[in-house]
Amino acid sequence: MLTAASDIEVLARFGRALADPIRCRILLALRRAPGYPADLADALGVSRTRLSNHLACLRGCGLVVTVPDGRRIRYELADGRLGHALDGLLASVVAAEPDRACPEAAEKGCC
Q1: Domains located in the chain, CATH noted
Q2: Is 10 left (phi over 0), alpha (psi -120 to 50) or beta?
Q3: Does the pLDDT value for residue 59 go beyond 50?
């Protein structure tokens, strides 16, 4: 059975989101709990501008959503299943080869 083009696009979109270490860290932080941009920037040690750009990317990929909270905007995973998918992906990669590093990671800085 052939995989639908829409399935491939969904996985490619998820892969693009995970291709950047800061976006990986944002997703992992939001997996634990929703967060506000200023708090996320402080917790991750990145500038608010840089965090904002990455949050916009994740929003564009459909992985995070904004929730108005009074005068503030809170970010959270678009669907709780994304947190489970991240958990499963982490467990799978660690179970497959826990001590292996990606050879391209040192060359290209991938996560």
Answers
A1: 14-86 (1.10.10.10)
A2: alpha
A3: yes
